[in-house]
Design brief:
about 0% strand, globular, 12 helices, about 260 residues, mainly alpha
């Protein structure tokens, strides 16, 4: 099926993503506005804790937070929801005409749409703090592609493993929390002691989220070599996730 899954099942993915977005805030009074309110409330909380209480040294700190927090919300939400997509979509499993690999892709694409819809909040903060957008914005679609491919591979693998190993989804929640605090999203990379900084710098996810910060906060162009390396890694993870999904899918019916 490979990367053509997005083309071959484009209409089905579109329908499922649209249903996901419509149902996300169904029944709530504020509805769509939670797309802005959720990250805004998180930003205010982290600004008080890290910016005021812990005195993190970063000018225009709300912009610094939001530039990394918005893609992180996409990453963590898609990962957690995608890992349970096969279990929650059990009614589709076993139907020969339904392509089950699209199920873990729905949270990835819905999360990307939600991320793009929340960007006006970040752009508004850029105006408030008078931070200009530079040529780095040209690299923004590349970062979107990298994150989408990376998440697609991870969610396909994790959703398949969760069927056989039910502890996967519980363990994943803790891993996501640890990753969040281990990455320089709430604090700049320079805040990490030099003797430990190399550990963080060699984390591929740090390169991804730092790329967003370079574009929207620092006004820089991300390193093309790093982007190329991340793209190669994302493609490898995508195919690895698809391979894992195909291998595990043969026993889905036995465990659901």
């Amino acid at each position: 099926m490979r990367l053509t899954i997005f083309r071959d099942y484009g209409w089905l993915l579109y329908s499922l993503v649209l249903r996901d977005l419509r149902g996300r805030y169904k029944g709530s009074v504020l509805g769509f506005f939670w797309t802005f309110l959720n990250p805004l409330l998180l930003m205010l909380t982290y600004s008080i804790v890290f910016g005021y209480f812990l005195q993190v040294n970063a000018p225009a700190y709300p912009v610094f937070i939001l530039s990394g927090l918005l893609p992180w919300i996409w990453f963590s939400t898609a990962l957690l929801q995608g890992s349970t997509s096969i279990l929650e979509g059990a009614s589709y499993v076993g139907k020969t005409i339904f392509p089950t690999p699209v199920l873990p892709l729905v949270p990835v694409l819905a999360g990307m749409v939600n991320y793009l819809l929340s960007l006006p909040l970040l752009l508004l903060l850029l105006l408030v703090f008078r931070l200009p957008l530079g040529w780095g914005l040209v690299c923004f679609p590349v970062l979107l592609l990298i994150q989408a491919l990376l998440l697609s591979g991870l969610t396909m693998a994790l959703s398949a493993l969760s069927v056989t190993f039910r502890d996967t989804q519980h363990l994943l929640g803790h891993i996501v929390t640890i990753l969040f605090f281990m990455m320089p999203i709430m604090y700049p990379l320079t805040a990490i002691p030099e003797r430990a900084r190399w550990i963080v710098e060699h984390n591929p996810l740090v390169g991804l989220f730092y790329g967003y910060q370079q574009i929207f906060y620092y006004g820089e162009v991300p390193d093309p070599r790093r982007l190329l390396w991340l793209l190669v890694l994302a493609v490898a993870v995508f195919y690895g996730g698809q391979f894992t999904f195909n291998r595990q899918s043969e026993s889905f019916a036995e465990h659901i």
